[in-house]
Design a protein that fits this description.
heterodimer, A: 496 residues, alpha/beta, Rossmann fold, FAD/NAD(P)-binding domain, six-stranded parallel beta sheet, five-stranded parallel beta sheet, globular, B: 163 residues, alpha+beta, five-stranded mixed beta sheet, NADP (chain A), FAD (chain A), NADPH:adrenodoxin oxidoreductase, mitochondrial (chain A), Ferredox_Rdtase (chain A), FAD/NAD-binding_dom (chain A)
């Protein structure tokens, strides 16, 4: 396949198609109809190039032979949370990038990076240029703890912390404090376990990943030896999945330090649990109660780092150091559960417990934000109201991924959900609910606007140049890549 | 490019073999049997019928020793999103449902595969991951079903918060 060039340098076929608009076809309805299927392909754009965006694009391109699908991305680099969220020591999860790259190489797909929808170009402008707009921009905000001391140095949101070690440009100056012995993570999901693993992993393991050099240097000097993961509810309500738990239990140089009494009465409940929860709970119980074999016992006794789950604790306040300049601990309210299973509610008992610590990470979930006042948004749930991906009361607008269903699930969840949205859109094309008889200019119209506004979009072949530089820099130090942290540097690499 | 992809596919199957090898004596035996099958019946072909999500069927032929994921990739079968992590046991998108009499004869499942199956949609009693099942002569003529991904089922098993 020939490299995809910037529109500025190559006259694209689509611009020629756009020119057809000037032909007097609209004055001749019969001719117009006969042209619709071949001359006017449905022009679709997707906002966001994470898994939701790419899986939606993949399904549309695969199941419609003519649809043109353009992907807009705020950053100069694609792949969203696959690049900036997936833990650096989970390279196998990043294999999805290979499929995304195939999608981006399609003749009918254009990647336009470095374009912030809502700032550089509006949703209304996209709706004028395209027949359909799919919102797949994810959940870029964090949920706040809402407790005193939350803003003290030493307290970070999981989102910022993960962004920092994964090279998200916005978080490159975070510089977290690793000078204390104990870290507390508020939350018991997979992100919380990812963070615990990064904090406790032997540095030699991390050196072989694509973690940023900045993070590697800071973690090399880290004094953190203990990590507690705190949850409001009990062991039957943890949100992480079993693969991540298993990894944590066998993490080299690290031993689990869990309180056996938390698990002793679970036996009766386990047999009636649905399979995933059952296996997860069995593993928790085994790790906490079963006497380890000789080899494992030796391994644990030789480990100088430890981690553990703390249940039935809800954060009340961050405790400041004596000089008041940074976090020195966290006050937790002791809770008890009302109700059973997934719906159990934590109720404060009135007791509190203080844990001294120098690093507090709040991992209580991500949050989507509205992109425009013209797009409906449910603030309470943090999602765009939709039915199978069709945005409520907004024909031609669709959504997929976290902004559609909330920030939960693994990549496969987002994959099926994105396929569903693409399927809804294809059904609307077929049924005529989405009318594409009128020609739309698609990317060429948007490029003109961007040119006027001084915005230079980054193409997929531009990204491949950045990718090559990152891979080469990584190879020098034995890593799969060394991510570039500064968007300006990325843009200079593709400067034309 | 295609050659590189095939190399990747082959090494994945060998990797699956070596993973089994580490897991204990019984595994070594079956792994050797598998290797032997690959060596001695290199001409051996196995016909597999896939029943896709929409109920349509695809009949194809694979080589003894290659995994069901290899087969789908190699023959470019039209199964949406199949094998997203490329056989590294990091997702459940190559989930397949087997016939009882075939399922009973499959190599025992590892904890790691079970962990991923836990997150699969439409999990059944005879579910396995296609990347972990290598074709063997006894599988000739078998039918495997690609599970439907129904929104309700999915939400019920969706417990991986902010992953």
């Amino acid at each position: 396949m020939s490299p995809r060039c910037s529109w500025l340098y190559r006259l694209p076929g689509r611009a020629l198609l756009g020119g057809i608009r000037t032909l007097p076809t609209t004055r001749c309805p019969g001719l117009h109809r006969s042209l619709t299927s071949s001359a006017h392909p449905p022009q679709i754009c997707i906002v966001g190039s994470g898994p939701a965006g790419f899986y939606t694009a993949q399904h549309l391109l695969r199941h419609h032979t003519q649809a043109v699908v353009d992907i807009y991305e705020k950053l100069p680099v694609p792949f969203g949370l696959v690049r900036f969220g997936v833990a650096p020591d989970h390279p196998e999860v990043k294999n999805v990038i290979n499929t995304f790259t195939q999608t981006a190489h399609s003749e009918r797909c254009t990647f336009l990076g470095n374009v912030t929808v809502g700032r550089d170009v509006t949703i209304e402008e996209l709706q004028t240029a395209y027949h359909a707009v799919v919102l797949s921009y994810g959940a870029e905000d964090k949920r706040l703890l809402g407790i005193p001391g939350e803003n003290l140095p030493g307290v970070y949101s999981a989102r910022d912390f993960v962004g920092w070690y994964n090279g998200l440009p916005d978080n490159r100056h975070l510089s977290p404090d690793f000078s204390a012995e104990t870290a507390v993570i508020l939350g018991q999901g997979n992100v919380a376990l990812d963070i615990a693993r990064i904090l406790l992993s032997p540095i030699d393991l991390l050196k072989k990943t694509d973690i940023t050099q900045t993070a590697l240097d800071a973690l090399s000097n880290s004094r953190i030896r203990k990590v507690w993961l705190v949850g409001r509810r009990g062991p039957l309500q943890v949100a992480f999945t079993i693969k991540e738990l298993r990894e944590m239990i066998i993490l080299p140089g690290t031993r689990p330090a869990n309180n056996p009494s938390d698990y002793q009465n679970l036996g009766d409940f386990i047999k009636d649990l649905p399979r995933p929860r059952k296996r997860l709970t069995e593993l928790l119980v085994k790790a906490a109660l079963e006497k380890p074999g000789e080899k494992e016992a030796l391994r644990r006794s030789q480990s100088d780092r430890e981690w553990g789950l703390r249940f039935l604790r809800s954060p009340v306040a961050v405790l400041p150091s004596e000089d008041g300049k940074k976090a020195a601990g966290i006050r937790l309210s002791v809770t008890r559960l009302e109700g059973n299973g997934e719906n159990a509610v934590a109720v404060p008992t009135g007791e509190t417990e203080d844990i001294p610590c120098g690093l507090i990470l709040s991992s209580i979930g991500y949050k989507s934000v509205p992109i425009s006042s013209s797009v409906p948004f449910l603030h309470k749930n943090g999602i765009i109201p939709n039915s199978m991906g069709r945005v409520q009361d907004a024909p031609g607008l669709y959504c997929s991924g976290w902004v559609k269903r909330g920030p939960t699930g693994v990549i496969a969840t987002t994959m099926t959900d994105s396929f569903d949205t693409a399927q809804s859109l294809l059904e609307d094309i077929k049924s005529g609910a989405l009318n594409y008889s009128e020609n739309r200019l698609g990317a060429s119209a948007i490029r003109e606007l961007l040119l006027l506004r001084g915005i230079q979009p980054v193409s997929f072949s531009d990204w491949e140049k950045i990718d090559a530089v990152e891979a080469a820099r990584g190879a020098e130090v034995g890593k799969p890549r060394e991510k570039i942290l500064d968007p300006e540097e990325m843009l200079q690499l593709v400067c034309r | 490019m295609a050659a590189a992809a095939r190399l990747l596919v082959t090494s994945r199957c060998l990797l699956a073999g070596s993973r089994a090898w580490y897991s204990g004596g019984q595994r070594i035996r079956s792994w050797l049997e598998q290797r032997a099958a690959r060596l001695y019946s290199s001409e051996g072909k196995v016909t597999v019928k896939f029943v896709n999500r929409d109920g349509s069927t695809i009949v194809t032929e694979g080589k003894v020793g290659e995994s069901l994921l290899d087969l789908v990739v190699e023959k470019n079968l039209d199964i949406d999103g199949f094998g997203a992590c490329e056989g590294t046991l990091a997702c459940s998108t190559c989930h397949l449902i087997f016939e009882d009499h075939i399922f009973e004869k499959l190599e025992s499942v590892t904890d790691e595969e079970m962990d991923m199956l836990d997150l699969a949609y439409g999990l059944s009693e005879t579910s396995r991951l296609g990347c972990q099942i290598c074709l063997q002569p006894f599988m000739n003529g078998m039918t495997v079903k690609v599970p439907e991904s129904v929104a309700d089922v999915r939400q019920a098993v969706d417990m991986g918060k902010n992953s």
